[in-house]
Amino acid sequence: xxxxxxxxxxxxxxxxxxxxxxxxxxxxxxxxxxxxxxxxxxxxxxxxxxxxxxxxxxxxxxxxxxxxxxxxxxxxxxxxxxxxxxxxxxxxxxxxxxxxxxxxxxxxxxxxxxxxxxxxxxxxxxxxxxxxxxxxxxxxxxxxxxxxxxxxxxxxxxxxxxxxxxxxxxxxxxxxxxxxxxxxxxxxxxxxxxxxxxxxxxxxxxxxxxxxxxxxxxxxxxxxxxxxxxxxxxxxxxxxxxxxxxxxxxxxxxxxx
Length: 257
Prior knowledge:
alpha+beta, four-stranded antiparallel beta sheet, 15% strand
């Protein structure tokens, strides 16, 4: 007789396999299963329907089949240094400090599973994590045309010695790129260092772009933030690549009064 699974603590992969047949379709691309708090109609709109509806059609068409798991908590299986999604666990108890994870993803055949911990998390933070994981999927498989268009914008910024970035990961990689440029005495536009920076910059900027289509958000200001006119140019470039769905706008001034 096979051993029963302990549903109080499963790996994300085990959890996804266990509840695969109970996933509820949202669209041709997205389905979901909620194992956290009971979902009211308002919760369903706020966590799932509205974020999915705001996605640009060209991006949705490029994404794989996606299953969304909404769970109480996620625990890193190997401490805070673990980077293997399959080692994360779904748990109903709050993990110890240093083992808390808020989201993770893994591949199961031709399907991508996105898991999100909801307890002790704000809706705005969930939206950011949702769009960040989708932007990461796009960055992992961006087309030649998308890569070329976005890198052209980045090279214009670098040639103009523009400081700052959209988020911390891309900012750190930009500093690494600058140091390499100085050490080599010139441009490194096709180097591995540039490609790593470009991919992360694309992910961080696309996250902001998607989040901004769905929600009314403010961009934090600070010494590491990309100047607003350059940020707007990036967002306009993404708007050309991935136009928002009908009825949505990228910038407030595009909304009809």
